[in-house]
Amino acid sequence: MRIPKHIGVIPDGNRRWAVENGLEKKDGYDRGLNPGLEMYKLCKKIGVQEITYYGFTVDNTKRPTEQRRSFTNACVEAVKLLSEQDAELLVLGNTNSKMFPEELKPYTTRKTFGKGGIRINFLVNYSWEWDTGYVKNELKGPLKSNDVSRVDLVIRWGGRKRLSGFLPLQSVYSDFYFIDDFWPDFKEEHLDEAIRWYSKQEINLGG
What we know:
By secondary structure, the protein is of the alpha/beta class. Helix 2 runs parallel beside helix 3. The longest helix is centred in the middle third of the chain and has 18 residues. The protein is 27% helix and 20% strand. A 7-stranded mixed β-sheet has the order 4-3-5-2-1-8-9. Strands 6-7 form a two-stranded antiparallel ribbon.
């Protein structure tokens, strides 16, 4: 199979998963930690060179306080877990906002952990306007995510078919694969099926 160099991960459906399992919405976020770590291990095993995880957006911070605290804590814990792996890790988001967790500021320049190798980007308090410098109908740059490569394949869990502002420039020529299952129900077959589907796509980058 043709393996994408860079996979974007949109881990949606945590709140809906919690409700379906008799929990409060805020209790779904930490259930995404193990899937995120498993996704990393599988990608590393098959030779993916870069992964970008969509943590939370600026718009997400408008949710109720208890949910915001919960997904923020989950993102902090996820980054800590990934920093214990072999990775070149970067957290990307608006650090000037009080919504950006202080614990993650040391990760906002790319650092190598363990043996390095696979590049991991984690979007936290991210928005495409912040990234591109979009103000009053003008792009004023420079691009904040200039250290992130073009995304070959974006996989979104949770059944919704939209990008929600995910790396708009790097995903211009991405292929998109949507999974109905919620992110906490991640399983290896999801990635296998996405890779097999991607292998059948014609990649010409507009040419």
